């Protein structure tokens, strides 16, 4: 690794980026709303969050910045074993929780649960659960749209996160700074080819588009890492509410058929710019506390909501409620997902990670 990367870097004080935490929280909330609207209005061109799925690319971009910030200076001293163990402790407890919640949601769904169990059979149900715990794709469970992780669909991006973390530890950590833009350029061509071929970037989560996920994670992670290593932080006094509104604006930007060029602009230019602005902004007072809280909540929310979304979708199919009832139930599901995520954060995720961290240091 080029040791000159970190010289004279103002980030050396290891500040905490509260604004980035807040933006991460907004992205997680947007994902929940987007998934609800996938059932309320399956036509993305009519959805008020037609580009909500791009929150995943924003997560990847944030991850590149944060991993570089947290580990570029110290990962080699820690050793790869410690680095990978740290990432496992950070990520995998929620993989387990999401798998359990997804399994229960699948077999206990009052609308299609019995039908799903009968169609899948005990063998597939158990095997899908084992694969989910081990972060291995199993896209053969009925009723889940060929999702790579049928019990917890968003886990596909966690698989990509694991893979890019391995690439970071084995390759990117030692990569001279001058080569990073080259890799970023190659990954830009890759994701552009994928977007043009598919007509959009909502790919990687299911069996037919599995390999597309690699293009998404490689570009956005490398973009975030580039922002960090080249110190492309824009110091500013923009309020968090404005930056948050800009991010929401991306997710609400109207979706059109075959608008892959628009999505490339959002992913390749707008997200890195928002990252640069967010890293250079400061939050104060209650806004800072809100940013911290939503940042902590974001990962549990992302990994615990989808079983309830499937339940909501099956309810819509079975009951065919009117608009008032439908939106009332959607609001209850949204609030329930947030409350569950907080409970999981408070009484499972943080305590388990704390215990595991202490255990490995003994």
Short account of what is shown:
The chain is built from 13 helices and no strands. The chain is mainly alpha-helical and 362 residues long.
Which helices and strands occur, and which strands form pairs?
Blueprint (H helix, E strand, L loop, with lengths): L17 H23 L14 H17 L3 H4 L1 H29 L4 H21 L21 H16 L9 H19 L13 H18 L10 H13 L7 H20 L5 H20 L1 H14 L3 H39 L1
Helix pairs in contact: 1-2, 1-9, 1-11, 1-12, 1-13, 2-8, 2-10, 4-5, 4-6, 4-11, 4-12, 4-13, 6-8, 7-8, 7-10, 8-10, 9-10, 11-13, 12-13
What does this structure look like?
The protein is an all-alpha fold. It is about 70% helix and about 0% strand. It has 13 helices and no strands. The protein has helices at about 20-40, 55-70, 75-80, 80-110, 115-135, 155-170, 180-200, 210-230, 240-250, 260-280, 285-305, 305-320, 325-360. Helix 1 crosses helix 11 (about 285-305). The radius of gyration is 20 Å and the shape is globular. The relative contact order is 0.17. Residues about 1-15 have low confidence and may be disordered.
Structure annotation, total helices: 13
Instruction: Evaluate the radius of gyration.
Output: 20 Å
Distance between the termini: 30 Å
**Strand percent estimate:** under 5%
Q: Helices and strands, in N-to-C order?
A: HHHHHHHHHHHHH
| Low confidence ranges | 1-13
Q: Count of DSSP E strands?
A: 0
Q: Please state the average pLDDT score.
A: 94
Q: How would you classify the helix and strand content by structural class?
A: mainly alpha
Question: Which bin fits the share of residues in helices?
Answer: 55-70%
Largest sheet: none
- Overall outline: globular
């Amino acid at each position: 690794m080029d040791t000159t990367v970190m010289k004279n870097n103002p980030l050396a004080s290891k500040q905490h980026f509260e604004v980035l935490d807040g933006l991460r929280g907004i992205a997680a909330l947007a994902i929940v709303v987007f998934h609800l609207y996938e059932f309320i209005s399956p036509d993305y061109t009519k959805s008020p969050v037609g580009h909500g799925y791009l929150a995943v690319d924003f997560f990847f971009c944030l991850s590149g910045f944060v991993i570089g910030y947290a580990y570029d200076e110290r990962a080699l001293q820690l050793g790869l074993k410690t680095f990978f163990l740290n990432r496992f402790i950070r990520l995998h407890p929620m993989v387990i929780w999401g798998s359990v919640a997804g399994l229960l949601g699948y077999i206990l769904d009052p609308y299609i649960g019995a039908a799903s169990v009968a169609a899948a059979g005990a063998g597939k149900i158990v095997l899908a659960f084992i694969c989910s715990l081990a972060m291995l794709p199993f896209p053969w469970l009925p009723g889940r749209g060929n999702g790579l992780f049928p019990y917890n669909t968003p886990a596909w991006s966690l698989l990509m996160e694991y893979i890019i973390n391995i690439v970071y530890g084995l390759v990117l950590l030692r990569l001279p700074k001058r080569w990073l833009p080259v890799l970023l350029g190659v990954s830009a061509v890759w994701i552009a080819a994928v977007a043009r071929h598919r007509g959009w970037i909502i790919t990687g989560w299911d069996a037919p588009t599995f390999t597309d996920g690699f293009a998404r994670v490689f570009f956005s992670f490398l973009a975030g890492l580039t922002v960090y290593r080249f110190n492309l932080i824009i110091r500013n006094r923009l309020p968090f509410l404005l930056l948050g509104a800009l991010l929401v604006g991306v997710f609400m930007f109207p979706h059109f058929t075959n608008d892959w060029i628009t999505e490339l602009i959002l992913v390749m230019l707008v997200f890195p710019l928002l990252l640069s602005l967010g890293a250079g902004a400061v939050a104060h007072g209650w806004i800072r506390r809100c940013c911290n809280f939503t940042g902590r909540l974001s990962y549990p929310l992302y990994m615990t909501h989808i079983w309830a979304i499937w339940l909501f979708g099956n309810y819509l199919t079975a009951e065919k409620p009117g608009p008032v009832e439908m939106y009332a139930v959607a609001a209850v599901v949204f609030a329930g997902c947030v409350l569950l995520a907080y409970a999981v954060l408070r009484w499972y995720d943080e305590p388990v990670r704390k215990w595991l961290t202490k255990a490995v240091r003994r």
